[in-house]
Amino acid sequence: MTLDRELEVWRQQWQADAAVPQGLPAAIEHQTRNMRVLLAVQIAVTFIFGVGSIAWAFVSFQEDATVLTVAMWTFLTIGWTFSLANRRGTWKPATSTTAAFLDLMIVRCRRRLRTMAFAPAFYVAVLSFNLAWTWIYQDSTRHDASGLWTFLTSGPNLVVWIVTAGLGVLAVGYRRRIQTQVKNLVTVRRQLDEPVRTL
Amino acid sequence: MSDAQPEGDGRRADLERRFSALFAQYGASVARLAASYTHNSTEREDLFQDIAMAIWQALPRFRQECSDRTFLFRIAHNRGISYVSRRRLPVAAIVDEMDVPDMRTDPVAALVNQQEGEQLLDAIRRLPVSYRQIITLTLEDLSYADIAEVVGISEGNVGVRLTRARQLLRQLLQVQK
What we know:
- The complex is a heterodimer of chains A (about 200) and B (about 180).
- By secondary structure, chain A is mostly helical.
- Chain A has 6 helices and no strands.
- In chain A, helix 2 runs antiparallel to helix 3.
- The longest helix of chain A is centred in the middle third of the chain and has 41 residues.
- Chain B is mostly helical and about 180 residues long.
């Protein structure tokens, strides 16, 4: 069999499968709706916590509300600043060539790894502030060492520790997945560049 | 407001029309490209939908800088690569034997054809991603120039890689038999 005949046979075998999965419009509609809901939730969270805390501070005129509002906006500013700086240069049309797309994906994954280094520190800072704020302004236990221990081991806070441990496990797993993805993407990118050895 | 709404609806209708036309013409090709990245039928369908979603999002910004096919296949392969990069990469089992096996070409035996089609797809899935992309685009009748435009390498490089991809594919098919 000649080489071109061989390719023609492969082409016929390949194109013989002409099935197209059904239900595409519904799936697109469903995914579009999900993305809109996600965006709405992000805006709502920022609005409720950011604007809500300011409104509370103005209405109550209490020290605790002011402290909470200042801290809330500090955390929101730090979070958004990091997020925007970390995303810089990571947007490109989905129609890029494979080589350009791989370069972009590698950068995105490395930025995600950077986020995974930032997020735990940010989480600890936010959690520490929330616990301190609650203990100082909202908790009725004595403000000494034994009172602090009682507060930290109370029912609601035990839930916080369990959730934190769970998030820690998830974060480690996610970080490993991203590391594997970077390794795979770099391998494919290298394949595109390296000279081809023909037999 | 009342003017903006029909204009928005018109844009949406136009987008839906373009999207449907693209998938009517190239849906099967996109499904085959998705199939070259996973053998699991559920995952294949998920990847197909993922590709369709990416095309739907990119379509409003598509200004015919390249052909419809190049546009579609770039997105399809980029999503496919993104998909496999999250998993362990398949590695081609390279054998030393270089004899080209005789292909069974009985056109009447549909079952044999189907079986051979499945074997071909399975062998393609085992190729390294960079070769897999070149061979699937070739089997979709894209020219060297079009493939170079999709992948982002020179036409000369496409030719060299296609030769190597065919050698590997032949060996994999030989091993399967």
